[in-house]
Specification:
TIM Barrel; about 425 residues; binds pyridoxal-5'-phosphate; Lyase, Ornithine Decarboxylase, Chain A, domain 1; single chain; eight-stranded parallel β-barrel; alpha/beta
Length: about 425
């Protein structure tokens, strides 16, 4: 992918910072990579909107993906608005409000209930309106940090396989009306071996149930790109010039995925869905910021930017290391990059550049498309990044600039303030 073209456009065209740029061609390329990975009979790609929900970008993704995965009423409504009436939306959420249920079931073609209790609560209202599934939790943990491990102890995400088996034995009628199963058990994994382990486990323990069903959803959590593409997409200085974030150390290994698909196809007659988020959205987003101050502090130079970790909350939530354009492994002019808020820990990390930074210098955060804008907020009244699209003709277009009134509305206060 020609990231250099986008970077050139960002150097030459005047944009307001902070800015979030999404690259339509990159979204399409990464959706295509995911689609190629699952290619085959009765297999469908759903994009998980929770990672990125800029409408213009969703339209680009929808040119490749079959449909979307939604986590809430608002996402489902947005997804329907992009996809039109006929393409699939799958919903899973631990929290369905009774007042939202009817609209959700109308909007979504597939709903995976998060627990046997949630299924019991909504079964009568859902059957016949939507295709009902159950989220199961195999409790096969793949992630060291339990803050984002769906298989952690006391997890709220999905009915445990033991409970499902026990209910199947004791009261099989409880499964009447269910047509599918889903699981989601990983995060940012390049190796799909755990997916195969999970499918084997389900095949071993829930085979009789799977034989009665029409579909299975294998969740997201896997990346279909690797370091090779990352290097090609860099600024031409080669991969060693970049610090790679928490995700990319090698190319994606799809052997487990292929074997899992073969197993499911040979043992069952199921439609198969995959619903990646970050794999499609991460590389397509860039946050552009400007240096607003350079401060000496205990022998280091702190570059204060006009963005904040609140525009990339996973920097604090999960200690993820942002990829900064031009960051050198060795030498150069070193800076601590910090955000513009009062939070002492609003710090992105240390970076080094060939040329010294000055007030007004641009700092580019690469691979910032996933879980950034969907989680961004107005903390300290620092403005949200303006949203720009970059299309395949090389044109940068402003989709949305946020203004003071947006902040005021967000705070719930329009009517209380003197105009
Ligand atoms: C149910 C479900 N599906 C899909 C995803 C997308 O995961 P990722 O963005 O890691 O691919 C998530 C992420 O939390 C999820 O909870």
């Amino acid at each position: 992918m020609d990231r250099q073209r986008l970077l050139n456009a960002l150097q030459t065209q005047a944009i307001e910072t902070p800015a979030f740029i999404y690259d339509e061609a990159q979204l399409i390329q990464d959706a295509q990579l995911a689609l190629d990975a699952i290619e085959g009979d009765r297999t469908h790609l759903l994009f998980a909107m929770k990672s990125f929900s800029v409408p213009g970008g969703l339209r680009a993704i929808a040119s490749v993906a079959d449909g979307f995965h939604a986590s809430s009423l608002f996402e489902a409504k947005l997804g329907r608005g992009i996809l039109g009436p006929r393409r699939p939306i799958h919903l899973t959420t631990p929290g369905i409000r009774p007042s939202d249920a009817a609209e959700l079931f109308e909007l979504c073609d597939l709903v995976s209930f998060n627990s046997m209790e949630q299924w019991a609560q909504f079964r009568e209202r859902a059957v016949g309106v939507t295709e009902c599934g159950l989220r199961v939790n195999p409790r096969l943990s793949n992630i060291a940090d339990e803050r984002y491990d769906p298989c952690r102890r006391h997890s709220k995400l999905g009915a445990s396989i033991e409970d499902v088996r026990e209910t199947l034995r004791a009261d099989p009628e409880q499964f009447d009306g269910l047509t599918g199963l889903m699981f989601h058990t990983n995060c940012d994994a390049l190796d799909t071996a755990p997916l195969l382990d999970t499918v084997r486990y389900l095949d071993q323990h829930l085979s009789s149930l799977l034989k009665q069903l029409r579909w299975i959803d294998l969740g997201g959590g896997y990346l279909f790109f690797g370091d090779d593409e990352c290097a090609e997409a860099s600024d031409g200085q080669g991969p060693r010039a970049f610090r790679c974030g928490r995700t990319r150390r090698r190319a994606a290994d799809l052997k487990g995925l292929n074997q899992a698909l073969d197993l499911l196809r040979s043992h069952y007659d199921l439609r198969i869905y995959l619903e990646p988020g970050a794999s499609i959205s991460r590389r397509a987003g860039i946050i552009v910021s400007s240096v607003v101050d350079l401060v000496r502090s205990n022998g280091r130079t702190v570059a204060v930017l006009d963005t904040s970790v609140n525009h990339m909350p996973e920097v604090l939530e999960f200690n993820s290391i942002p990829d900064v354009l031009g960051d050198l492994d060795y030498g150069g002019h070193r800076y601590l990059l910090a955000g513009a808020t009062c939070l002492a820990g609003d710090v992105f990390g240390e970076c080094a550049f060939t040329d010294p930074l000055e007030i007004g210098s641009r700092v580019f955060f690469l691979d910032a498309g996933a879980y950034s804008m969907v989680k961004a907020n107005f903390f300290n009244g620092v403005n949200m990044p303006s949203i720009y699209s970059f299309n395949s003709d090389g044109v940068l277009t402003l989709d949305r600039a946020f203004v003071y009134e947006d902040f005021l509305e967000y705070c719930g206060g329009l009517q209380h303030v003197h105009s």
